[in-house]
Amino acid sequence: MTRIGHGFDVHAFTEGRPLVLGGVTVPSERGLAGHSDADVLAHALMDAILGAMRAGDIGQLFPDTDPAYEGADSMVLLSRVMGLAREQGFLLVDADCTVAAQAPKLAPYREQMRQTMAQAMGVDVSQVGVKATTTEHLGFVGREEGIAAWSVVLLDKENGR
Ligand SMILES: Nc1ccn([C@@H]2O[C@H](COP(=O)(O)O)[C@@H](O)[C@H]2O)c(=O)n1
Ligand SMILES: C[C@@]1(CO)OP(=O)(O)OP(=O)(O)OC[C@H]1O
C-alpha cells in the first residue's frame, strides 16, 4: 500500500536569528521567527510524512506551547517523525520539496539540505528533492516578509491498509 502526503508551512522573517532551512544554516542577515528553529522546509516535510501516515500534523505532535520544543532542532523532530513512521511499518519511497524565498539565493545550499534531511530520516539522498523559487517579487514572499515551503512524500507499507 502506498500513501501520499502533502505539507505546507510559512514562517516570517525576524531579526537576530539564524536562517535554518533543511537543517542547513544559510548565511543571511535575518532568520525566521518560530517556537523551534523555524526550519520551514523541514516543517513542510514533516507535515507531508504525517499526512501520508494520517497522523495529524507537527503542531499536534510538537505543540508550540510546550517549552520542550523552544529552539528545537527540526532535524531531531524530523528523525522522530520518521521513527514514528517506521514504527507503524511505513518506509519512505520518495520526497520532494519546494522553498519559495525571494532571498537569499538558496541554490548553493540545496545539495547540503538534501543530504542533511536524508540523513535525519535515515534514507538515501536520492530519495529527497529540494528546489527553490522566488515569487518574482509578488506577495509576502516577494516582499521578503517570509519564506514558504511545500513538500510531497510517498510512503510505502507492506500489507497495510
Ligand atoms: N531563493 C532562491 C530562489 C530561486 N533560486 C534559484 O533561482 C532560479 C530562478 O528562480 P525564479 O524564481 O526566477 O524561477 C530557481 O530555479 C532556483 O534555482 C535560488 O537559488 N534561491
Ligand atoms: C515546530 C513547532 C514546534 O513547537 O514550532 P514552530 O517553530 O513554531 O513551527 P510551526 O510550523 O509554526 O509549528 C509547528 C510546531 O510544532
TrEMBL record:
Q: Which domain of life is it from?
A: Bacteria
Q: Which residues bind 4-CDP-2-C-methyl-D-erythritol 2-phosphate?
A: 9-11, 35-36, 57-59, 62-66, 133-136, 140, 143
Q: Which residues form the 2-C-methyl-D-erythritol 2,4-cyclodiphosphate synthase domain?
A: 3-155
Positions bearing the site annotation: Transition state stabilizer: 35, 134
Provide any one GO MF term from the record: metal ion binding
* Comment on bound cofactor: Binds 1 divalent metal cation per subunit.
What's the EC number here? 4.6.1.12
What keywords is this UniProt entry annotated with?
Isoprene biosynthesis, Lyase, Metal-binding, Nucleotidyltransferase, Transferase
List, separated by semicolons, the cofactors it needs. a divalent metal cation
Q: Which CDD domains match?
A: MECDP_synthase (cd00554)
Q: What pathway, per the record? A: Isoprenoid biosynthesis; isopentenyl diphosphate biosynthesis via DXP pathway; isopentenyl diphosphate from 1-deoxy-D-xylulose 5-phosphate: step 4/6
Q: Which GO terms describe its biological process?
A: isopentenyl diphosphate biosynthetic process, methylerythritol 4-phosphate pathway; terpenoid biosynthetic process
State where a divalent metal cation binds.
9, 11, 43
> Which InterPro entries does the annotation name?
MECDP_synthase (IPR003526), MECDP_synthase_CS (IPR020555), MECDP_synthase_sf (IPR036571)
Q: What class of enzyme is it?
A: lyase
Signal sequence coordinates? none
| Reactions catalysed | 4-CDP-2-C-methyl-D-erythritol 2-phosphate = 2-C-methyl-D-erythritol 2,4-cyclic diphosphate + CMP
Q: Specify one Pfam family.
A: YgbB
The subunit field of the Swiss-Prot or TrEMBL record says:
Homotrimer.
Recorded hits in NCBIfam families, A to Z, give: ispF
| HAMAP family reported for this sequence | IspF
Briefly state the protein's biological role.
Involved in the biosynthesis of isopentenyl diphosphate (IPP) and dimethylallyl diphosphate (DMAPP), two major building blocks of isoprenoid compounds. Catalyzes the conversion of 4-diphosphocytidyl-2-C-methyl-D-erythritol 2-phosphate (CDP-ME2P) to 2-C-methyl-D-erythritol 2,4-cyclodiphosphate (ME-CPP) with a corresponding release of cytidine 5-monophosphate (CMP).
The family this protein is said to belong to? Belongs to the IspF family.
- Name assigned to this protein: 2-C-methyl-D-erythritol 2,4-cyclodiphosphate synthase
Q: Native species of this protein?
A: Tractidigestivibacter scatoligenes (Olsenella scatoligenes)
Q: Which gene encodes it?
A: ispF
